[in-house]
Design goal:
mainly alpha; flat
């Protein structure tokens, strides 16, 4: 089985969506409580959970038309997106070690992609 371009794009799209959901989850944590009424009014939390669900629903058909050994390593790009979204939306700072980690992830994903 070969991995279709649809599967690759769908997987990367699901990763971006999941990464953004992580940022929203971080924002939701500021007002997190175990009070069910307050949880139901936490818009960041509701959107984050919905995005996680949608990203999973996108990933499942991607798996149908691609090799798991190719697609699942692409999920590692989620760490890259989370880092960029954290800088952009949460004003977090990156240091040399974080940039090195991102470079290693990119190299690893590229090795797996080229080996297919």
């Amino acid at each position: 089985m070969t991995t279709s371009i649809f599967s690759i794009i769908a997987t990367l799209g699901a990763c971006v969506m999941g990464a953004y959901a992580s940022v929203l989850m971080k924002k939701a944590s500021a007002s997190f409580t175990f009070n069910l009424r307050k949880l139901m009014r936490n818009s960041h939390l509701i959107i984050a959970v919905a995005l996680y669900g949608i990203s999973t629903l996108i990933f499942i058909p991607a798996l149908k038309y691609g090799e798991l050994s190719v697609l699942y390593p692409l999920v590692a790009t989620t760490y890259i997106w989370v880092s960029f979204f954290s800088m952009w939306f949460l004003k977090e700072r990156m240091n040399t070690w974080k940039w090195a980690g991102i470079a290693i992830i990119i190299i690893g994903v590229a090795f797996i992609g080229f080996s297919s």
